[in-house]
Amino acid sequence: MRRSVVLEKEQEALSPRSTEEVAALRAKHILPLPGPMYTRPVQIVRGRLQYLYDEKGKKYLDGFAGVATVSIGHCHPHWLKKIQEQMREYFHAPALYLHPSLGLYAQRLLKLAQTANPELDMCFFTNSGSEANELAALIAKNFTGSQEFVALRHSYHGRTLMTMALTGQSNWRQSTPYGQSVSFAEANYVYRGYRWKECLDDLQQTIRCATPGRIAAFYAEPINGVGGVITPEPEYFPGAYEIVKKAGGLFIADEVQTGVYRTGNDFLGIQKWGVRPDVVTMAKGLANGYPIGCVLTTREIAQAMNGKLHYNTFGGGPVQMAAAGAVFDVMEKENLPKNAHEVGTYLIAKLKKLAEKDPHVGEVRGMGLMIGVELVKDKKNKEPAPELALKVLDSTKDRGLLIGKGGLSGNVLRIKPPLCITKKDADFLVEVLEESLRA
Length: 439
Prior knowledge:
Layout: H1 2-14, H2 19-29, E1 44-48, E2 51-54, E3 59-62, H3 65-68, H4 77-89, H5 100-113, E4 120-126, H6 129-144, E5 148-152, H7 161-165, E6 181-185, H8 196-210, E7 217-220, H9 236-246, E8 250-254, E9 279-282, E10 293-298, H10 299-302, H11 318-334, H12 336-357, E11 361-367, E12 370-375, H13 386-398, E13 401-402, E14 404-406, E15 412-415, H14 423-438
Parallel strand pairs: 3-13, 5-6, 5-7, 7-8, 8-9
Antiparallel strand pairs: 1-2, 2-3, 4-10, 9-10, 11-12, 12-15, 14-15
Helix pairs in contact: 4-11, 5-11, 8-9, 12-14, 13-14
């Protein structure tokens, strides 16, 4: 009897609660989280492909995909099946033991990444993008012998001490100093007047004036995520690559958000610029929401870790590999890269038409299904409109659409849905956004 009473109480504790109760429990027991995303929070209890549902059964189009993480769709049946099959065998085994899925998945992943650089043939798995970027920095220091890093303003690379040091936004930097030598160059933020020639000159001068002239690595998101979907001009990254190589540094492409076909037909976002990265960091969409991170590099660079103990308790575990492998299965079977390109192109075109007639949409930018809509108070002076962005997020939520926001001023709407989104969904998204801006 005692056990049944305990079980009943536990079940009661897990039963559906009101949004207010859930918010109060989180505020009481959880460290503060970024926000507010909404002035009136939403509670999500279920997800199916590109749709989410709250505790009352209301349906939402997911236009944010767990911050560009859900790649093939929430609870995709094939993905669930592969995870469940592995869990029935065993859940966790450290990389100290052999398991066939680790090497097989690595081979599959590297084959796709080699479309960007044929020499990428070594990888290491972690639990997150922050860990991957941290490891990439360690590899760069060991390979080059330098401790100097260059990153871009408006960048975001994670929440560890090293990755916060690499992040070029004041609101994401805390607990300074970091003890890491990082200098920041200007991002190619065309809408704010920073063109590629001036930005390349600034990168060169940053290396000349703020470092000893030799660097360990240059970090860049092909299209930055948290910083507002800043999309560089075609000339920027090829020019930056040459400057970095002359300074003896590695070119590190942070593909945590842009990777796994998020930008369309290419597996990695940096491929749009024709640059061959020395190191690639990935996470998020690789496993559709299951925790994962990865560093990919060349065999020559990887040798810098020889003789140095490095280990990750959960990285490369059998369930992680099952989840990640299932993502590739679905990508291939359902041709989601093509869908990301076609629906993304369609959606961007419709959003640009909206920008032509709405006085507060300053710019629409991005590639594939990684899209930013910058809101301003006035198109002439381009003053950021963060208050409007927050109101729009509330309004779109009430109308059944979930999107995100970012940018240094919090005025950029971030649209990054699962890659299974349809053109009908895109029509709904634009319609809701237009109504919300008008409201």
